[in-house]
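STRUCTURE REQUEST FORM
Protein name: Cytochrome P450
Source organism: Clathrus columnatus
Requested output: structure tokens
Priority: standard
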Amino acid sequence: MLTWKQDILVILFALSLPLLYHRRRTARDKLPPGPKPLPFIGDIVHVHSYGKPIIILNSYKAVYDLMESRSSIYSDRPHLIMLMELMGFPGTAFQPYSNLWRKHRSLYHKQMNQIAVQNYHPSQMAAAIDFLKMLLEDPKDYIQHIRRSAANLSLSIAYGRDLIHRFDQYLDLSEQVSGNFVRAVRPGEFLVESFPILKYVPLWFPGANFRRWAKMAHDKMQDAWNIPFRDVKEQMAKGNVPPSFVANSLVELGRSDESDFEVGAVKSVAGGIFAAGADTTTAALSWFFLAMTLFPDCQIKAQEELDRVIGRNRIPQFSDRPFLPYIDGLVKEVFRWFPVAPSVILIAFTSIITDHRKILHDPEVYPDPMSFIPERFLPDKDGNVPRDPTVSGVFGFGRRICAGRHLAEGFVWIMAVSVLSLFDIRPATDSDGKPIDVRYAMEPLPGFFCHPQRFPCVITPRSPEVVQLLNQVQF
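Status: completed
Returned output:
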């Protein structure tokens, strides 16, 4: 016999069946004609999940034909009821293709285009130096140091370094929001995505735990977006506010009323910079440390280039980048080896997923794809190089390509080159003195972003002068 809770679920399910049938029929009718698709065969895979059609693009050609050549059509996002309606997510990533999304992108482009990001080089250098000092003091906790440095950078860019005294409060909010976001977008996590009628269940209703969780997540998200934004506004009212995305944008607008469409967009974009930047950068740099642990020959070659070009008497700068081609290839290989973020767009009721990893592991383009080979991005005897992963997959495609990609790629570069210049990364050893095999870490952790499993490594200064070098640098 069914319980009263099960009775209610059955009734809600029955009421939602006509809507589900209509949506599925409409989606199927809009799919391109052709033979019944076979799963996991060819460049384009068509499957169903919870009655919703999903198309997976497995080749660069398929992605380019749809998401680049026809980007005006394939630029929407799936409408996630939990994230967008119940939690009220204001960020850019899952905004539909609309005037609001276009405003967000315009703000990003103005402040973070390839030229404008050079204004953030001092902030990126400062975050890198902070990380190196933490690494020197406590090398075993390097993952947490990466996360803290990436969040520090995101804070300084979005809201300014003068708010660093409230960093721990902001970081706590950001991490809670990030965790809630990951749960909200996890496929199959919430029944409301398959049965939208459940969103009308009141908070007080027995068994409505998902609604109460959504209310909590909504309130945390509002705090994360509102508190630092209003702190900047308060600083601006007092004068002498340092440059930041928020301050620069509000000065340009000449107003700060949050009910204003453009001011509200500035607040949403700033929250997205702080909330999203730390997780993706942490993932990429974690893969860097794993690669250096597993492929010591690559580390040796990179350090030989550094010693030849820069020496050991100073810390690398962004201006050194054109003279360090091997390290440039190494950073590209970090991004290609394990791309950190998925990409999902929408047409009608069909989700379209680009399989970044398959595209960037195509053996015809990148031979021996699971090996870490920075040399693949150096010109061959005919001057040819394979597709640059930072512009062909890692950061997405088409109009939905990551707006902060220049900033993220630059920060990973300065962090990697700084670490290689000052430190050695070696495998940890067991009680018998044998190197610990950490290849297991190449199996990514479950989650929205692609992180390696935790693994031990030994990080030591390359010379006694490292301490002196770090103490000399001021930002």
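Reviewer notes: The two ends are 70 Å apart (CA to CA). The longest strand covers residues 44-49.
Form closed.
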